[in-house]
Write a structure and sequence with these properties.
Order of helices and strands: EHEHEEHEHEEHEHEHEH
Number of helices: 8
CATH architecture: 3-Layer(aba) Sandwich
Distance between the termini: 10 Å
Helix content: 25-40%
Number of domains: 1
Radius of gyration: 17 Å
Structural class: alpha/beta
CATH class: Alpha Beta
Bound molecules: 2-amino-2-deoxy-6-O-phosphono-alpha-D-glucopyranose
Mean pLDDT: 96
Strand order of the largest sheet: 1-10-9-6-2-3-5
Strand content: 15-25%
């Protein structure tokens, strides 16, 4: 595991974008798993800048996404589908047919989970890169704390803490979906490289626990410790507990 120190959110976004951009330059037909949430917005802005400067093209790439709310999400401005369109896809040359996000509005949601799992299984040797944020309770994607690691794409009842965490994106608390569909732990762990990004004081305790505590499904992100190629890019505030307890672990 490599932990890369950044002074602030802007530096985290730039460094994370540099890592993803190098991958795209070296392997233009990369398959990349994207994440939503507040944390990757700056990273996506940086990728758009690099695309506009002509440094990178997404034309040959394929993309997957970690998760989606369940319900009539196509009408929901705050759906992860719309998040990806607005924060990245509409600003770059990725082909819409090469982007895949679980369809939370599917009439047969179980069939949709199976379709997504199969689509991920068809990628030779797994995703080239999966970008991850971390939830306040240690969730990755929407894999919530549980007694086991759910392996494949599945439906989740969001915890109260996670629902709270979605508040910045909704004007009305009651409109926050309470269920979601998420990529499971297997596709995440099968990715050749993982990029975990974290920013802000609110992430410092959970980040330390996830990366240095026991590997347990009660903190889903803790499984990342045993991934073959995990890079963590985080800012000073998010790293504060690690700086205090494991200063030698930081690059
Ligand atoms: C959401 C997403 C996760 C994300 C997490 C953290 O619940 N499903 O993929 O990593 O929240 O979000 P934020 O970056 O806003 O802190």
């Amino acid at each position: 595991m490599n932990i890369i120190f950044c002074e602030d959110y802007e530096e985290m976004s730039r460094k994370a974008a540099a890592i993803i951009a190098s991958k795209i330059i070296l392997k233009p037909d990369s398959v990349i798993g994207f994440a939503t949430g507040a944390t990757p917005i700056g990273l996506y802005k940086e990728l758009i800048k690099r695309y506009e400067k002509g440094e990178i093209s997404f034309a040959d790439m394929r993309t997957f996404n970690l998760d989606e709310y369940l319900g009539e999400i196509k009408d929901l401005e705050t759906s992860f589908y719309n998040f990806m369109q607005n924060n990245l896809f509409l600003h770059i040359d990725v082909k819409p047919e090469n982007t895949d996000i679980p369809d939370g509005s599917a009439a047969d949601i179980q069939a949709e989970c199976e379709r997504y799992t199969e689509a991920l299984d068809l990628i030779p040797e797994g995703l080239d890169f999966q970008i991850l944020g971390i939830g306040a309770n240690g969730h990755i994607g929407f894999n919530e704390p549980d007694d086991y690691f759910p392996l494949d794409t599945h439906i989740v009842e969001l915890t109260e803490e996670t629902i709270e965490g979605q508040k910045p994106f909704f004007d009305d608390y009651n409109k926050i979906p309470k269920r979601a569909v998420t990529m499971g732990i297997r596709a995440i762990m099968n990715a050749k490289q993982l990029l975990l990004i974290a920013s802000g004081d609110g992430k410092s305790k959970i980040l330390e626990k996830a990366l240095f505590g026991p590997v347990t499904p009660n903190i889903p992100a803790s499984i990342l410790q045993i991934h073959r190629c995990l890079t963590v890019v985080a800012d000073r505030a998010a790293l504060s507990q690690i700086i205090e307890k494991h200063p030698d672990a930081i690059l």
